Amino acid sequence: MSTLTEDTQLGGQKLKRIVFTEDEVRRRVRELGAEISRSYGASDRLLVLGLLKGSFLFLADLVRAIDLPLQVDFVVAASYGASQVSSGELKLLYTPEASLEGRAVIIVEDIVDSGHTLSRLLPLLREQGPSSLEVCALLHKRIQPLDWEPRWVGFDAPHEFLVGYGLDYAEDFRHLPYIASL
Ligand code: PRP
User: Fold this and answer.
1) Eight-class DSSP state of 39
2) How far is the CA of 139 from the centre of ligand 1 (A)?
3) Fewer CB near the terminus (10 Å): N or C of the chain?
4) What is the pLDDT of residues 172-181, one digit of tens each?
């Protein structure tokens, strides 16, 4: 991989350091896919839900590493509230048209930061009666104890502003194949 200063994908934008390289991400996503594959059977009717937009690359790579029949759909949610740590209300802008009832559902999230997004989303999805509802998060900052925890976590994340592999700063940097700090 090229160095940060030479990276043609940055177009002159500056990053502080690479936190997880493209190779580290690729290997860990494969491991997560193998772990998930061992945890379900074909009769579970697995539904993998990507929480947009941050999860789009992780979701795409993860489902290709899962050796099971599954379906893919998305959830789009918007947080409303005064602070940047999404303490406000969560509004669902898109949810799967098919019912979650009786299905094994995995929510795929790029990063658990405060945990507020999923603390609000999980009860809404549980109302639809999935047979199980789990979270697979690529990154987890472990900022505070949560009354739910992701079943699968790619990496414990440093308490820095992270971008790349789906994560953005003002919509920039999502396309980077590695995770870096600003
Ligand atoms: C980011 C990220 C998570 C959430 C985590 O989404 O993708 O979904 O924040 O933060 P929390 O644990 O503190 O709730 P964002 O709202 O920035 O939208 P995006 O996925 O479209 O970037």
Assistant:
1) H
2) 11
3) N
4) 999 999 999 9
